Amino acid sequence: MLNDILEQTTVNMGKSIDSLKRDFSSLRTGRVTTGIVDNIRVDYYGTMTALTQVGNVITTDATTISITPWEKSLLPVIEKAIQEANIGVNPNNDGDFIKLFFPPMTAEQRQGIVKQAKGMVEHAKVSIRNVRKDANDKIKKLEKEKDISEDESKKAQDTVQKTTDDFVVKVDETFKTKETDILKV
Q1: Is the dihedral angle over the CA atoms 137, 125, 9, 22 positive or is it negative?
Q2: CA 14 to CA 17: how far, in whole Å?
Q3: Is the pLDDT of residue 26 over 80?
Q4: How far apart are CA 62 and CA 140, in angstroms?
Q5: CA 115 to chain CA mean position, Å
Q6: What is the mean pLDDT of residues 124-150?
Q7: What is the percent of the chain where pLDDT is above 90?
Q8: Among 14-18, 32-36, 41-45, 161-165, which stretch is predicted with the lowest mean pLDDT?
Q9: How confident is the model at residue 9, as a pLDDT?
Q10: Are 107 and 127 in contact, with CB atoms under 8 Å apart?
Q11: Could you give all domains of the chain from N- to C-terminal order, each with its CATH number?
Q12: Secondary structure string (H, E, C) spanning the chain
């Protein structure tokens, strides 16, 4: 039972790291990636559908994303969805595809994105600490119900704390890598 709690704690903390990496993929770095448009949804015959599922999304160079819809009738819908997503550029529709031209980032913009990333890091750390709290509560409940001894409870809580510390270090390392990527000109 104790092993299940510890195993589930590790799994849930891993999910926090995965979520952080997903959030980071939506941030712009020196080079434009298609991750910037991953969260954009378009109205596809009454169903809100990911932009990547209604057309081909590619980066043509370091500052340009090209979107070629499977159906030409979707061009105005996609254009409107991009404008509403407020990603910092206006779509250019040429009748066959949409191009997004991203200007090179200024140092000030880079610092703003780093600040955004720090907010995401704090959110991930809070999530990890919440997982720790849940695990410790379950362990204390087992001790209270006399399913485990006080020593086992203390040892398990120490293990949970060590796991938490390890995952916080992983979050910080992930941030350092992303920060370097953002600030690189």
Answers
A1: positive
A2: 5
A3: no
A4: 53
A5: 15
A6: 94
A7: 62
A8: 32-36
A9: 95
A10: no
A11: 2-26+106-183 (1.10.132.20), 34-101 (3.30.1360.40)
A12: CHHHHHHHHHHHHHHHHHHHHHHHHCCCCCCCCHHHHCCCEEEECCEEEEHHHCEEEEEEECCEEEEEECCHHHHHHHHHHHHHHCCCCCCEECCCCEEEECCCCCHHHHHHHHHHHHHHHHHHHHHHHHHHHHHHHHHHHHHHCCCCCHHHHHHHHHHHHHHHHHHHHHHHHHHHHHHHHHHCC
Which residue is associated with the tokens 């926090």? 16
Nearest to 34 by CA among 16, 13, 60, 15: 60
Residue 2 Cα distances to 7, 12, 144, 149, 166, angstroms: 9, 15, 14, 11, 19
Q: In the numeric block, which tokens belong to residue 176? A: 């350092």
Of 25-34, 39-48, 49-58, which gets the smallest average pLDDT? 25-34
Residue that wins the pLDDT comparison between 142 and 32:
142
Claim: this prediction has a pTM higher than 0.90: no
- Residue 94 tokens read as 């040429």
Tokens matching residue 147: 């399913």
What tokens does 109 get? 């913009």
Edge-first strand listing for the sheet containing 55-61: 55-61, 64-69, 98-101, 92-93
Closest CA to 77 of 122, 108, 47: 47
Residue identified by tokens 């399913």 is: 147
